[in-house]
Amino acid sequence: MPFDRLHNFRDLGGYRGADGRTVAWGALYRADSLGKLRVGEGADWDRFLALGVRTVIDLRYPWEIEAKGRIPEQHRFAYANLSIEHRPYDQAAIDPDIDPWRYLADRFGEVAEDGVEEIRQVIELIASGPAGPAVFHCTSGKDRTGLVAALLLTLLGVSEEDVLADFALTELATERLLADWHAANPDRTMRWPSYGRAPAVVLSLVLADLSARYGSTAGYLADRVGITASTERDLRARYLTAVPNQATPIAS
After folding, report:
1. Using CA atoms in the order 87, 78, 45, 22, what is the torsion angle rounded to 10 degrees?
2. Tally of domains within the chain
3. Neighbour-count burial of 210, counting CB atoms closer than 10 A to its CB (0-12 exposed, 13-18 middle, 19+ buried)
4. What gap in Å lies between CA 205 and CA 211, rounded to an integer?
5. Are 241 and 21 in contact (CB under 8 A)?
6. Is 162 part of a structural domain of the chain?
7. Domain containing 34: what range?
8. Under 8 Å CB-to-CB from 183, ≥6 apart: which residues?
9. pLDDT digits (tens, 9 = 90+) for 185-236
10. Residue 195 DSSP one-character state
11. Is residue 185 assigned to a domain?
C-alpha cells in the first residue's frame, strides 16, 4: 500500500482461507515501523487514519521504541507493545560468509520459542480485541512481523504456498529498507549483502523446523503457544468472509 515514509505496509486480505472463505480486505494489516509516521508532515498520517485502524501492536523491543518512536497520537488506538524477540542481533553485522537463509531461520526459531507468551498475546488481541481493523509491525515489517503474519494466516486456514508468498513480498521493499539503513547509519559499513531480504526459503525452513518439532505449524500454535480452539474460531469469525471482496486502494 502506497505511503511515503512506510515501505512495507500491506493488507493481508484476499487469501483463500478455511472452508473456502477469504481473508477480508481492510481488516488486518502488517507494516514496518509506524513510528515513522508524522502528524502534519505529508499525506501519510491522513492515509493511515483513513484505514480506520483501531488496534496497533508494536512488536519491537521497548528500547527500539524509545530510540525510534512509536505511532503518533497513541491515545487514538488500542495500543500494545509486545516484544516477541528476546535475543537482539545486528543484521548489518552478520558474517557475509555464512548461509544467510539458515542463519535467519535459526533466529526465527529462537523467536518462536522465546516469545511464545507474547506471540499468544498478539494473536489473542487480534482475535478478540476492539472491533475494527488491526495492524501489527516491527522495524522493517520483515522478520518479527513476517513470523506473526505467517502464524495468523495459518490459523485462518491459508495454504502454506500463500503464506510463503506473502512473506516474500517484502522483497519488493528491500531496496528502500536498505536505503533507510544507510541514511540512518552514515558512519557504518553494511557487512551483510542480504540485508532487507525475505525470500520464501527462510520461512519455509522455519515452518519445516516447527513441523519437525511439533508435527505441524498448527501443532506448534496449539501445543507450544497455547492457542485455543476458541481463539481460532474468534479469529476466523472476525477475519474470514464468505464472499471475496475487492481491495480499496489508498490514493497515492
Report:
1. 90
2. 1
3. buried
4. 10
5. yes
6. yes
7. 10-238
8. none
9. 999 999 999 999 999 999 999 999 999 999 999 999 999 999 999 999 999 9
10. T
11. yes
